[in-house]
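#lab-general

N.A. 3:47 PM
ok so I finally got the sequence cleaned up, no stray characters, all 523 residues accounted for. can someone with queue access submit it? mine expired

B.Y. 3:52 PM
send it over

N.A. 3:53 PM
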Amino acid sequence: MSVPALTAAQPLAESTAQSAAQSLVQSVDWLAIAPPTLVAVVGLAVLVADLFLPEARKAVLGWVSVAGLAAAALLLLPLRDGDRSTFCLTGQPAVCSYTVDRFTLVVQLLVLGGALLAALLSVTTLKDADKGLPEGEYWFLLLSSAAGAALLPASRDLATLVVALEVASLPAFALVGIRHGDRKSSEAALKFFLSSVTATAVSLMGISFVYACTGSLYLTQVADRIQHVDGRLHTLAAAGVVLTLVGFAFKTAAVPFHFWVPDTYVGAPLPIAAYLSVVGKAVGFSGLILVTVVALPSYADAWGPALAGLAALTMTVGNVGALRQQATRAYSAVRLLAWSSVGQAGYLLVPIAAAAYSDDPQKSVGSTLAYALMYAAVNLGAFAVAALVGRRSPLNRLTDYRGLYASNPLAALLLAFFLLCLAGLPPGVIGLFAKVTVFSAAVDAGLGWLAVVMAVNVVIALFYYLQWTTLLFRAPEGAPEGEPERHRVPAPLTAAIALTGVLGIALSGAPQLVLRFAATGLF
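B.Y. 4:20 PM
back already:
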């Protein structure tokens, strides 16, 4: 009798197993994941096309990459209607690995816009390269890194965060050292790689500590469970919180994880230095925000003081390093921009640190994003003008900018505008308002000492920004009498300078376009 009973039970068991299997099959929201997916697909297509195109036709790969990045940015428009999530736990639709919300869209716009402008600069750089950079590999690596960077702000579990961070980072190492036979480039790539790997290893250790305490990698579950950790595990949890931040602090070039920045910016092709200064920072800061404000708000007493100290140290070391640059030294302009980016990273850290002490941490996060959007536009513009000057003065010294107004008035005026925005002086209104927003976030959170440190550093930064600005309008030393020599500017470089100039001026005319994030928050 037992055999027929088992036989009768088999269809029911099979039906139950099939039903359970079907419940694990999820539909993918392809529109939500479309922007990073399109960038990755275009990267693969470019790599394959490079195998078949003749050398004379490979310039088309650059324009395909530019078009792909522009199309990915346009795909953000249909996502504005509301929050979308995919790759969620079965039966728990609120616990997902990929979420598109307001925060995600702002950071993805910053990433894709920054990558697009870096791609425009790259078209000219690849055409002018003396040794001939490998175009197919270059565009594949750039698009791969951009795809990882666009994935990171949508990541809502620690595993996806780390994967996105590494997908954004690993191609960047190769891009820094892509100049074959260039010792300076190879050394910069090696330093960048070794320091990044070390920081990532420390972060993975921290994530393992957090997972050991909570049993989950999903940010929302971690936020809930870490509040109820057994008392014996509090020290382990606090250590995990601090260690997890290290990898993202490295990406933001926060002191003491900044030492790779000057040599890397000098050794890399200039468009890649511009890319790292903006997109690399966007990756680091979005990761920091997700880990601190979303996953670990209950441990604000651990990460708040740590980030406040990092902010003060970073802005001070960065500005002092920029102040010490010698105008006649080779690549001093690029080095000054590198140290300036370290100093700017300190300002960007201030609102995240303030979120630990604020009653409304989302508004503090909004201040960081508002400042990051301003910084991205004007910093990419400064790099674009540096690329223009570097075409006739390969050493790119600060002294090479002397008299730029005489030979190229529009480029000189735009560079002066970009530098004044970074300094926070009129007519760079958006830079001034962005700094005031960050300053207010620190004061409102009760971090008066940090606001004072920031004010001192703003004054220090004024000196080297204004010093560079005045060089633009001085007469060149030993310049012959008569009409100054003028050089033809390639169309992609002209487009990059024009786009950043229009964006910077538009934001100065209507600063509410980005400052509203500081008033309303992002999540």
